[in-house]
Amino acid sequence: MTIPDREADFWDQVVERSAADEQALRILANDLCDPAVPWFKDLDLDRFVEAVFAHIDPKPGMRILDLGCGKGFLSVALAHRGAVVEGVDISPRSIGYSIRRAETSGVSDRTTFTVMDCKSLTFEDESFDAVCGGFVLHHLDLENAAQTVGRVLKPGGKAAFIETMGLNPLLMLARATLPGRLSIQKESSDDEYPLDRARLAKLQASFPGHVGTSFPQVVFLRMGGYLPFLDNRWGIGLMTGLDHLIARAPALGPLSYYGIVTMDRGSVPEC
After folding, report:
1. The Methyltransferase type domain covers which part of the protein (predicted)?
2. Which residue pairs, CB below 8 angstroms and at least 24 apart, start in 240-247?
3. Which residues pair with 164 in a beta bridge?
4. Cα–Cα separations (whole angstroms), residue 97 to 18, 181, 219, 234
5. What are 38-70's pLDDT values in tens digits?
6. Which residues, at least 6 apart from 94, have a Cβ–Cβ distance to it below 8 Å?
């Protein structure tokens, strides 16, 4: 089985296990967390969504690509803000789920969802004002991803992605050794790897513009919630408080398991 086939199969299975009732499908205009994944709010992922939106600055009529759209949350949220959104994903079940969400949320007229491999986008050059994504880059060939984002962005266009980061050695050690032990289930596919410094450098080397990172909040100790003895209200509350304390020191942002990757294409120089 090829890597694209494995990824499609993995995410098809994830979507198959997802809630599909109207409450989970419907995204409201001001939602910053996916109602189908309510525990995301415990990880402050609304702060990361805010950061993505602040960077790409969606406006009515903007054409935005949601790369690896998954279950369509970012696409629908952006359409609520007036953008015209193209969502692509390698998983057919993800695309079906996204179409249902857009219909349930009343934005199907501003969204289009297509099964497509992110490394082989069929869109024309310079066809999008902005590109975004949630947890997609670390699944891709980064040289190809950087070149592709740079190709489809208009001059001066911006991209922003919520990503799994590999800058914390302790978390990388835990990721490599704990799944399958201590009743911890493996939640990742076999063909992904968090973005460490070498991978971020590869993005920068292949992108026609500036690549940056930021950390709207620190999600470090909360990853301990995968340990059964910490997966409770008291344990999560304590770890959340400590993460928020760490986040007060901006230099400690890279300890976070999640971060924002921005990619800003340069403008065409004036003659």
Report:
1. 65-161
2. 240/42, 243/217, 243/218, 243/219, 244/217, 244/218, 246/218, 246/220, 246/221, 247/215, 247/217, 247/218
3. 258
4. 9, 32, 28, 34
5. 889 999 999 999 999 999 999 999 999 999 999
6. 11, 12, 15, 69, 70, 71, 72
Across the chain, mean pLDDT equals 92
> Who contacts 31 (Cβ-Cβ below 8 Å, separation ≥6)?
77
Neighbours of 31 (CB within 10 A): 16
Query: Minimal CA–CA distance to 52: which of 213, 174, 184?
Result: 213
Specify which residues 260 forms β-bridges with.
Answer: 162, 214
Phi/psi at 168 (5° precision)? -105, 110
**Contact 226/124 with Cβ under 8 angstroms?**
no
Asked if 230 contacts 182 with a C-beta cutoff of 8 angstroms, the reply is no
Query: Which of 4-8, 29-33, 123-127, 239-243 shows the lowest mean pLDDT across its residues?
Result: 4-8
Coil vs helix vs strand at 130: strand
What's residue 271's pLDDT? 44
Higher pLDDT among residues 162 and 178, named by residue: 162
What is the distance between the alpha carbons of residues 22 and 24, in angstroms, rounded to a whole number? Answer: 5
Tokens representing 74 are 């970012």
Q: Can you list the alpha helix ranges (DSSP code H) found in 119-253? A: 142-152, 169-177, 197-206, 233-246
pLDDT tens for 89-133 read 999 999 999 999 999 999 999 999 999 999 899 999 999 999 999
- 183-222 pLDDT tens trace: 556 666 777 899 999 999 999 999 999 999 999 999 999 9
Residue 208 in tokens: 């026609």
